[in-house]
Amino acid sequence: MDKLTVTGYFRRPAFLVAQHKGFFAKEGLEVGFHLVGLCPDHNRELAEGVWPITMSSADTMLARATQDGVDFVIFMEAEQGLDVQLVAKPEIKTFADLRGKVFAADPVDSNFDLVRNKIMLDHGVAESDYDIKILGNSHHRLAGFLEGKVSAAMLAPPSTEKALAAGGHIMAEGEDYVKDWPIVCGWGLRSWAETNRPLLVRYIRAYAAATDWLLLPQNREETLALVMAEEKLSRHRAELTYKYVVPHCAIDPEAIRKNIELRIDLGYYKPPHKTAEAFYDMSYWSEATGLPIPKPAARPKNAVLA
Predict the structure, then answer these.
(1) Is the Cβ–Cβ distance between 210 and 21 less than 8 Å?
(2) What pLDDT does residue 105 have?
(3) Residues above pLDDT 70, as percent of the chain
(4) Helix, strand, coil shares of the chain as percentages rounded to 5?
(5) Is the entire prediction scored with pTM above 0.90?
(6) DSSP 109-147
(7) Is 63 in contact with 110 (CB distance < 8 Å)?
(8) Cα 24 versus chain centre, distance
(9) CA dist 212 to 170, 185, 209, 218, 283, Å?
(10) 8 Å CB contact between 245 and 79
(11) Pseudo-torsion of CA 7, 9, 10, 15, nearest 10°?
């Protein structure tokens, strides 16, 4: 068995299925999972080669590639959608009430923080109108929320439910503001992917096979039960996660392009801007699945060439 460690914010449905139903083992892989705590540490360690690959958002990868110049590449997309909520303390009644208050964050310029920025701007509140405290992933942001360190936070289940049980309330659903979010993609250093191509292809093949298995109607209930048991999610949240699974783990070029466009709109990606295809390589996925590469999405509509 070849060993491989994958990082992420929690074990996704297809990852759990691949482990428990033997899809990784069939490819001769023993895959471990490293739970991400603080996003900046996660990103730095990936850039340094401490961890080979991650299953996390395309936006995090785009942030580090465009702002830090790290040559990361996306090689598959496991889930698309956005199950994250802007949760606030009971005394916060309107978005205007958040002016001057403290938001939990990690790491400010990407992923759920990008969604938070979009939501607040849509309600007329600029990022400069409130303070930010970098705490870490949803678990750490929840702790800060419960301890009274922050007035609001972007939280994902099961942290959302715990905040609501403590008196918090949902002010916004992320998916109402940002559509088709490539929330779980496989990515890592391009150099590692090129050097370890056979290993990566086997990992993708196993993950895609697990995805195809769990999407069969007769396997839905078993998958939901596994996710609820292993990740302690409510059935409602497990069903949402299941809904986001991408068939065959195929990258959606349009979703990547839209993500880049949002980064440009919010000022997090300075020109000159590249095409969406500069940030992903589907040759690994195509080799693993035997499926053709989707039509490219090309340059973002709001791109500036130079």
Answers:
(1) yes
(2) 92
(3) 100
(4) 45, 20, 35
(5) yes
(6) SSTHHHHHHHHHHHTT--GGGSEEEE--SHHHHHHHHHT
(7) yes
(8) 22
(9) 34, 16, 5, 12, 19
(10) yes
(11) -40
